[in-house]
Design a protein that fits this description.
alpha/beta, Rossmann fold, 7 strands
């Protein structure tokens, strides 16, 4: 079950962390994976690691916020390698490197756009680049990696991030219904706290938060990757327009 032989996947933001974990598990199930990252060296390193483990992977660097660059990169990849059957919209962040939580009242309006650019419009750009081909072939799997901040209110200074992630969730739901008769499914994962060590960062800021998670630990890239493998498979063809909480039980729905 959940085999992906003969399928090709594009995972955005897959040069490290959760994205790299998703790409690795998709490749382990037999998919050919296009590893995207804004930093070419990270994309190639992650793709090389997949190949070293016996999988098939290609580095595909581009900036998801650049509509033309996304379309050109996907078009070149599909012509030279294979059409994209599976898209995992993983690229996203708190708006920029070094982001610090800020209440909306204290946020600079000049900063609003950058949150939407990657967390919402980046999802739209990558989706648009693969959607026509999926419709033509009457098969497609789209998974958007969102956040619990997009499904619930939080008093931790992430309103702008949460608004963009919530927008991505809403977009994915509408996309699912628009293309339900085209053989395409589209779902979102509202991801909880992930161990920052997966991206080479210190875990000190989240250790205390982790104590409140019912299962007693932070999430891992493999936790998210496993959900993506299932949603990408034929076995999940009757699941679309849904938002799954992948969070160790905090909160439940």
């Amino acid at each position: 079950m959940f085999e992906l032989e003969g399928r090709t996947a594009l995972v955005t933001g897959a040069g490290q962390g959760v994205g790299a974990g998703i790409a690795t598990l998709l490749a382990r199930q037999g998919a050919v994976v296009a590893v995207n990252d804004i930093v070419a060296e990270r994309a190639e390193k992650a793709a090389a690691a997949i190949r070293a483990a016996g999988g098939a992977a290609h580095a595909l660097p581009f900036d998801v916020t650049d509509t033309a660059a996304v379309a050109a990169a996907v078009r070149t990849f599909e012509r030279s390698v294979a059409p994209v059957d599976i898209l995992v919209n993983n690229a996203g962040n708190g708006g920029a490197e070094g982001f610090r939580p800020t209440r909306f009242r204290d946020a600079d309006p000049a900063d609003w756009q950058r949150f939407a650019d990657i967390n919402l419009f980046g999802v739209m750009n990558a989706t648009r680049a693969v959607l026509d081909g999926m419709c033509a072939r009457r098969f497609g799997r789209i998974v958007t990696i969102a956040s619990g901040a997009g499904t619930q209110g939080m008093n931790i200074g992430v309103s702008l991030y949460g608004a963009a992630k919530g927008g991505a969730i809403a977009f994915t739901r509408h996309l699912a219904i628009e293309h339900a008769r085209d053989g395409i499914t589209a779902n979102s994962l509202a991801v909880g706290l992930i161990d920052p060590a997966a991206s080479g960062r210190q875990a000190s800021a989240t250790v205390n938060l982790a104590k409140a998670i019912p299962v007693g630990r932070l999430g891992t890239p493999e936790d998210i990757g496993a959900a993506c493998v299932f949603l990408a498979s034929r076995e999940a063809e009757w699941i679309t327009g849904q938002t799954w909480q992948i969070n160790g039980g905090s909160p439940t729905t």
